[in-house]
Write a structure and sequence with these properties.
The complex is a heterodimer of chains A (115) and B (112). Chain A is an all-beta fold and 115 residues long. Chain A has no helices and 11 strands. Chain A is 0% helix and 50% strand. Chain B is mainly β and 112 residues long. Helix content of chain B is 0%, strand content 54%. The chains are: A mainly beta (115), B mainly beta (112).
C-alpha cells in the first residue's frame, strides 16, 4: 500500500501477557517513529529509528517496552508483561528522512486494551 | 510538564465562519511548529507548519500565526467546512532534535 500500515488494528490482551505491534512504513522512508496516545492525552513520543538504529529511546516508558527495526523497513514495538496503564492507541509514523521539518505520515494506529 | 498546551478541549463553529484554534508553548527553544488533523480511527495528517523566523504562514483556507513573545500560535480556518470537523493537534520541535512534542488536541465541530 501507499501509506503507513499498522497491525493489528485492535489488540485485547490480559494483564501480564506480552504483545507485539507491527509497523510497515512508506517504502523509501528512512525515519520511523512510534507514539502513544492514552485516553485524553496528546501523542507521546516513544522512540524513533533512522535506518535500523534508534538514536533516541528516551520516550520509552519502562524497560518493558522495546522496539526494533530490520532491513530499514518494518518495525515492531514489543510490550512485555503488559499492565492496564499500557492501554492506549499506539501510532507509527514515517518520514523520508530524520528531522522534524520532514512531514511525518502516520498509520491508523493499534488500539491496545489490557484487561 | 506539558510543553505544548491546547487549553480548549473542544470548539464548535458555524459552517462558513472562521475557526480559531489556539496553542501555547513553554519551551523558548522551539523553532518549528506544526498542526496535524485527525479523524476518528485514522492517523493524524499534516496540515501546516511554521518556522520561528516567520509570524504567519498561509495555505488555502488555513493560516497559522506565531507570536513568539507570547509563546502562542493559532490556526485559522476560513471559511469553515463540515469536513473540517476533526481533532487538531498543535506540535513543536527544537533545533537538532528529532522529536515532535504534541499537545492534547482540540476537537473542532463544524455546525450546519
Amino acid at each position: 500500500g501507499a501509506g503507513v500500515s499498522q497491525s493489528p488494528s485492535n489488540k485485547v490482551t490480559e494483564k501480564g501477557k506480552d504483545v507485539e505491534l507491527r509497523c510497515d512504513p512508506i517504502s523509501g522512508h528512512t525515519a520511523l517513529y512510534w507514539y502513544r496516545q492514552s485516553l485524553g492525552q496528546g501523542l507521546e513520543f516513544l522512540i524513533y529509528f533512522q535506518g535500523n538504529s534508534a538514536p533516541d529511546k528516551s520516550g520509552l516508558p519502562s524497560d518493558r517496552f522495546s522496539a526494533e527495526r530490520t532491513g530499514g523497513s518494518v518495525s515492531t514495538l514489543t510490550i512485555q508483561r503488559t499492565q492496564q496503564e499500557d492501554s492506549a492507541v499506539y501510532l507509527c509514523a514515517s518520514s523520508i528522512e530524520q528531522g522534524t521539518k520532514n512531514i511525518q505520515y502516520f498509520g491508523a494506529g493499534t488500539r491496545l486494551s489490557v484487561l | 510538564d506539558q510543553q505544548v498546551k491546547q487549553n480548549s478541549p473542544s470548539l464548535s463553529v458555524q459552517e462558513g465562519r472562521i475557526s480559531i484554534l489556539n496553542c501555547d508553548y513553554t519551551n523558548s527553544m522551539f523553532d518549528y511548529f506544526l498542526w496535524y488533523k485527525k479523524y476518528p480511527a485514522e492517523g493524524p495528517t499534516f496540515l501546516i507548519s511554521i518556522s520561528s523566523i516567520k509570524d504567519k504562514n498561509e495555505d488555502g483556507r488555513f493560516t497559522v500565526f506565531l507570536n513568539k513573545s507570547a509563546k502562542h500560535l493559532s490556526l485559522h480556518i476560513v471559511p469553515s467546512q463540515p469536513g473540517d470537523s476533526a481533532v487538531y493537534f498543535c506540535a513543536a520541535s527544537q533545533p537538532r532534535d528529532d522529536k515532535i512534542i504534541f499537545g492534547k488536541g482540540t476537537r473542532l465541530h463544524i455546525l450546519p
